[in-house]
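Final report, Chapter 2: Outcomes

The project's central promise was a pipeline that accepts a single protein chain and returns its three-dimensional structure in a standardized token representation, suitable for archiving and comparison. That pipeline is now operational. To close this chapter, we reproduce one record exactly as it appears in the project archive, with the input sequence first and the structure output second.
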Amino acid sequence: MDELEEGAGPKWVRTTVELDNHVIVPDVDPTAMSIEPNKTLEDYLSSLSTLPMDHSRPLWEFHVLDFPTSEAVAALAFRAHHSLGDGTSLLSLLVASAGSSKVLPTTAPRRVSTIKALSPRSPSSPATGAVAVFTVWIMSLLLLVWHTVVDIVCFVATAASILRDPPTLFKGADGVEFRPKRFVNCRLSLDDIKYVKSVMCCTVNDVLLGVTSAALSRYYFRETGESGKRNIKVRSTFIVNLRKMTGLHTLASMMKSDKDNGVKWGNQLGYMLLPFHIEKHDDPLKYVEKAMRIAHRKKSSMESVFTNWSALMIKKIFGIKATASLCHALFKNTTILFSNMVGPTEQVTLYGHPILYIAPSIYGQQHALTIHCQSYMNIVKLVLAIDEAQLPNADGLLEDFVESLRLIREATSRKPHGVEECSQKEHRHGDT
């Protein structure tokens, strides 16, 4: 930022990169490394969340932690400012760095309810079929408009601090953004998640939301000692990738300057306010069923597109500080930050070193609990960023996620699998 220029704002400039300032090999206590390597890694990452980045140089760092843990022979921590890009951008950069021989996995374009998908399969006549199609199209459009208006009103009320989540065990206290975060993670079986998905006729995202709701409920009632008769609703700020294609893309296509390029580099994301219900169910599948209903409702809304557009307009008219204030209020008045992303389906090697897991997270926002789900190969890495002062039993919360998926998987195996019914639902609603 040119401080001599009146009304100047921050801008990108080319600079010379000194690698010694960005590749860091820290001195770690050898005794701690040998006795508790996992905790040593967690402690070091937690310490990074208290250190501001040096704005006099490019805002990224590689921390090489060259000692074995229970999962790998070494760890590489990449810390970057969010202004450099969102998760899709940075993950595409990581895979591109692995070499041009790797083929990036992509997913099909987003499925949107279409006339063909909603039309009757066997209309009695062309005229009757046309009327039915038109009626369904009008009803779908009206429903989309209504849901979008309702969601926009809730979003604006939340950003204006009119609508706030109630104080709960998970709600971030004042000043939580300045306290250190502990980053913990565990593995969830992607095969188990896909099995539940196929039997329940839903999406992978629906299953993850159901598992999250079940895990939060287990943790809450165990830690508070409450009876479980209450139904507490907390909201998460759910991050949505707004690119035309979901998944990963070639780095070259993301770096194109063409404004019509739907997969360009940067922060191409919006937000949804997604509720989680903390309650006790005798049947674990109730958590997935409720998550399916909530997710299906949110898919019939343009909330994420509006939040992205409104942030761009506020930034253009009032500046970056006003946009930051909007995000601050949104995060402060919700309880959880939630995100999930599709990663490579095959193992990636970085300069000859095979990457065994990818565990992204974020800090600096007004949440005591942040949940990231990252698929890679045949696993889903669940990553929690936790304010230990408020949620001291981080390992217990991780175990609740693992146990919740196990219970849901077992309950699913006892449920009859209606293949034809499932295929019809996927035909109508699409898959994610």
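Archive annotation: The longest strand covers residues 232-241.
This record, like all others produced under the grant, will remain available to the consortium after the project formally closes.
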